[in-house]
Amino acid sequence: MTRNQRHRLPHLPALPGWGTIRGRVAIVLAVPTCLLLVVTGLGVADRAADWSAARESAGHVELVLKSQDLVRELQRERGLTNGLLGGADEYRDDVDAQRTRTDTARSEFDALLAAGDAGADTGHAVRKALTPVTALTSLRGQVDDGTARRAPTLTAYTKAIEALISAAAAEPDRGDRALADSLGALEALARATEAVALERGSLNGVFAAGRFKGREFLDFTEVRADRLASLRQYAELATPAQESALSSAFDTPEARRATGYEKQAEGGADGSELTVAPAQWWSSMTALVDRLHGVQQQTGSDVRSHADRLGDEATAELGGFIGLGVLILAVATALALLSARSITRPLGALADEADAVARTGLPAAVARIQEAEAGDELLPEPAREVPDGAREFIQLAAALRNVEHTAIGLAAEQAVLRRNSSESLASLGRRNQVLLSRQLGLITTLESQEVDPDALGELFELDHLATRMRRNAESLLVLAGEESPPRTWAGLVTASEVVQSAIAEVEQYQRVAVVDVQDGRIRGRAVAELSHLLAELIENALIFSPPSRPVEVYGWRDGGEYCIAVVDRGTGMSTEDLARSNARLAGRESFLVAPSRYLGHYVVGTLAARLGAQVELRPTQGQDGACGVTAYIALPSSLVEAPEIQAMTTI
Q1: What is the pLDDT of residues 22-80, one digit of tens each?
Q2: How far apart are CA 488 and CA 404, in angstroms?
Q3: What is the DSSP track for 380-449?
Q4: Close Cβ partners of 162 (under 8 Å, ≥ 6 residues apart)
Q5: What is the pLDDT, as a whole number, of residue 81?
Q6: What per-residue confidence (pLDDT) applies to 274?
């Protein structure tokens, strides 16, 4: 790639805020801060996932425990209903009361399920599992009207209970093995309890009927096998305290009596008559089921406590990561502000110092230099201290002071040059004025002695040229700042006389037409400068108008003021040129920066300022479509005799 090709490469767009020091410091610190925040955000997301899992596990455990309450009531209703269908009519009132307790447990379970703390997947599975539970309502009607059979009814209740246990079974928690084992133990205990309750319900009907019928004995043995398998799984997952609680549940007089009843049932495998009272069997097994339910509640409480502890730990870690992220952001923001402030404050101080030097220091120093006598040495004022000790700022402050010294030196040189130029112009103007005054006096003497008309005409032309030269000399004095012109008149002078005096000082005076100059008297102290001002404007109009067109002069009163207009029909000026010319006439521009052809504007502007008059150039308004420029001069009332006084003088 060549050098020219590199120069033609497009510029990359600037980053937002890159144009300021604060923005650049913020961008530089934002990159590592964003990386740290990303890492912290990953930690926050991980801890948030743990917190959500722990919260979901706690809600799941609560749902499992509440489902066991419903399962317990369904198991009791199943056993009592099976006994009633087996012929034990004394269970009629117990069945009705148990149905009420089952419905109450169902309502409480539905309310907990509606809260949605167990997670969407588990909630959906449990709602689906409640369908068989809801179907038991029609089965109750069949039991009441005597059309239900014992074996299908037992199977329907069992399927509803199994579906509810399976749906509420807790899945292993993510990341925590102890919680997963506790949840597995809780599920195994629920299935063992269901096996015991199912055995209670099925044998309750068998004992009520007095013998096993059909597949009832095989079902009895399968239920006992399921119970033993679930108890072995519980022993593998449960803690020693939980195992001890289960052993205590089976080591009670009721449990031992229930074991004896089971052995009697084993003897009825051949269909022989069984003499166990259903009420005694139900009482003993219900006590065992209630103790197993208590073990379930204890195990569930342990699981819930563990899940809550995990949730608290996840909450603490989540809060720690969030706090760390906030701390990183706060520290990065503070560093960005401190870094930017440590840079911008001294830079701002230096900028204020430079601005103060540019606005007041240098102009004041130049003014002192202009007013000082020759040989005086002026040094700049001491610079303000920079509120920072960094080497770069000290170097920058020193560089600014060097610039200040250099600028004041250049200003001093320029002031000296301007002063010398003004003095030279004034000296040259005074010398020319003296010589021209002597020359005019000599020409006047020659005119008084000459009798030849041709020679006298040439003397008149020479006198006119000398008068113009005297005006140029006076212009030099005006530009040099001389206040008082050498020519003054006492009393009052008419406006027409002032206009004629100005016309006499221009070259092509024959082209000037005094169209309408109303009566007005000008104070004598202003006549010379006003005549000079008008001569400059009239001569300028003559130069920029065609030789065939005259320059017209008008004068009129405007209240207490007196206005004069010099009108030409020349080439005219553009709007921009008019604006620049009026700026020079108003004194808003120094003549030292303008081309020499505009010196007449500066002379007019200086004279107008001395007189307190206003001068403005405007486009000429003509009906024939001719262009040109009109110069308007407004004399203040202090230079013009009041109209009523003039009228009294005339009378």
Answers
A1: 666 666 666 677 776 676 667 666 666 666 666 676 777 777 777 778 888 888 888 88
A2: 47
A3: PPPPPPPS---HHHHHHHHHHHHHHHHHHHHHHHHHHHHHHHHHHHHHHHHHHHHHHHHHHHHHHHHHHH
A4: 194
A5: 86
A6: 84
The SS3 call for residue 554 is: strand
Among 236, 237, 230, 228, residue whose Cα is nearest residue 183: 237
User: Tokens for 451?
Assistant: 């009798």
The conformation of residue 590, written as its DSSP 8-state character, comes to: -
CA dihedral 645, 640, 505, 586 (to 10 degrees): -170
**Contacts with 583 (C-beta within 8 Å, 6 or more apart), sequence order:** 589
Q: Tokens at residue 373, please?
A: 């006598």
Q: State both tokens at 38.
A: 């990303």
Three-state SS letters, 501-531: HHHCCCCCHHHEEEEEECCCEEEHHHHHHHH
**C-alpha distances in angstroms, 362 versus 346, 408, 601?**
22, 6, 28
Token reading at 644? 């009523």
* Sheet hosting strand 512-517, strand order edge to edge: 512-517, 551-558, 561-567, 629-635, 614-619
pLDDT tens for 95-144 read 889 889 988 988 888 887 777 665 566 677 777 878 888 888 888 888 88
Lookup result for tokens 């049932």: 265
